[in-house]
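Task 17 of the worksheet. Students: predict the tertiary structure of the chain below and write it out as C-alpha cells. Keep your answer in the requested format; marks are given for formatting as well as content.
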Amino acid sequence: MELPAQLEPIDAWREIRAELRRAVGDTTYEIWLGGLEAKSFQAGVLLVWAPEATRSWVAKRFGRLLESCARTVLGDGVSVQFAGGDPAPTARGRVQARGHVAAKPTTEPVWDSLNPRLSFEQFIIGDGNRLAHAAALAVAELPGQAYNPLFLHAPPGLGKTHLLHAIGNYVLAFGGGATVRYTTVEAFTNHFITALNARSLDRFKHAYRDADVLLIDDVQFLASKAKTEEEFFHTFNAVYETGRQLVITCDRLPRKLAGVEERLRERFEAGLVVDVRPPDFPTRVTILRKRVALDNIPVNDDAVLELIAHRVTSNVRALEGALIRVVASHSLTGQRIDVELASSVLEEMYPQSSTATLTIDDIQRVVASHFGISVDELISARRTNRVAWPRQVAIYLARELTAESLPGIGSEFGGRNHATVLHACKRVSERIKTEPELDTELTELSRAIGTQRGDRFY
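Model answer:
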C-alpha cells in the first residue's frame, strides 16, 4: 500500500501523532502516547514501537483510536500492530514505506515548529509575568518597532518558551506574511556546524538573517562556543540593523552570562530586559484549572487543584507535571481524583514540610543591601575592600545555604572559578573563629534571607 499523494513518510507519522494529541488531549498524550515511534508501513500495516512497560496497556486502551487516526491520515484499510525490541533502526517520527526513497540529507536548517497551543490566549497572566506578557504582545503586534531586542530571563519552567511560541503564532496569523524563525541555541549550533562541514555558510546565513522575526531560545548555551558565538553575533547584528525583530530567552540576566563576550551582553541589554517570576498561589490554581479544562480531566473538587498549587511552587512545568502524575495514578488504579489520591501521589516528591528553594540571587540582594552596595558591584571585578569583603560573605552564604556547586556559585559571581570560591569561604571561616560579632552578623543575614523567602535557615 502506497502513501497518499503528496504525503511523505515523516509527514504521515507527524500527522498521525497530531490526530492522537487532538483526540486525547496533551496530558493523556504525554503520559501514554508521547513515546510511541513508527517503525514501518508496509502492505497496509503500520508497525508502531511502544515501551515494554506500557505496551499491552497502550494497545488495549488506545489501539483502536490509533488505528482510527492512522486511517484518517493514510486511508481506509490501514491496520496497526505494536512491536517491542529496539526502536533505534527507525529514526523517531519516521515511517518507512515500501516504494519510498529516504530524502537526501540537506544543509538547510530544519526549523523547530511552533506549537499552536502555546498562544497568548492560553498564557495565564499573574503578577510575576504580567510585564513579560505585555512586552511579548507588544512585540508581536509591532515587530521591530516596540522593543528590540526583547530579552526574557527566568529559571526553567516559568513560561519563556510559551511566550516565544505565542509571539511566533501571533505574527504568523496577523503579520501579513512576515517570516518567523524559531530555534534554540543548540539547534543554531548544530545548523552552523553542518553548514561549515558542507561549505554552505551563505545558505545558512540567509536562512537566519532573512527572518522578519527571529526567536532564539536558551541563549545561555552560547557560553564557551567561540565560533558559534561569533556567527550568532553577526546574525544578531544583521537582523537588528535591518529593523527586524529579535526575541531572546535566557535563564539569567545578560550581565551574568559569564562565558559570553561583553559585546553580545551589551547588545542583549540594549533593548528591553524583562524577568519572569514564579507564579503566586492564585495564578498556580488558575493554570491548573485551565489545563484541566483543555484536556477534559475529571477533577470535580477544587481542593485537589489547590493542594497541588500549595505543594508545587517552583515553576509551571513542575506544576503541570504534578497534575500529570495524579492523573496517571488515577488511570492506573481507577481511584477517583480527590484530595486523598493527590496527597498520596505528591507526598514523595513534594512533602508537606518542604520549603521554597533559596537562590543565589536572593543571597546577593540581601548581602548587597546589608553592606550598602549594588548587586552589580557585588559581582563585578572590583577588588576594593568595600566590595571584596561583602562578595566573600555572599559567596560563603551561597555555599552554606544552597546546594549549588562551587563552579555554579562562581558563575553567579561574575564567572569566578572554584578556587576563588574556596578562598572566599576559607577567608570568612577564619574570621568567624576570631570575631564572634561576625558570627552574629552572618546569623542575622541568614535570617533576613530566610524571612525574604519564607524559609527557615537558622
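Marker's comment: The longest strand covers residues 37-42. The two ends are 70 Å apart (CA to CA).
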